[in-house]
Specification:
Layout: E1 2-10, E2 15-27, E3 30-39, E4 44-55, E5 59-68, E6 74-81
Antiparallel strand pairs: 1-2, 2-3, 3-4, 4-5, 5-6
Amino acid sequence: MAVTFGSRYNAISGTNNLVGAIAAKILANLDAHASAQYDVRAGEMIEFRVGIDWRFQCFAISTEYVNRHANENQFHFSISLLGVGQVGTKGTGQ
């Protein structure tokens, strides 16, 4: 299990955010993670994420839900092929 906390400050935009995240191995091939960002100056939650990564021998499935304060919620789903390497041709550049 990993827990991280920190802050992000941007002098140009004047934002000061607190960031926290947690990641844990639930099973040998299943990981879960969650993170949150809080705007200190505005006093509101900016973003909250929660997701899982489920790995098999030759592919992985990832899902993540993102909840943002301005109703910009998203759901991400992806399937990744593991161990395939690069597919296609590479030019010589000459």
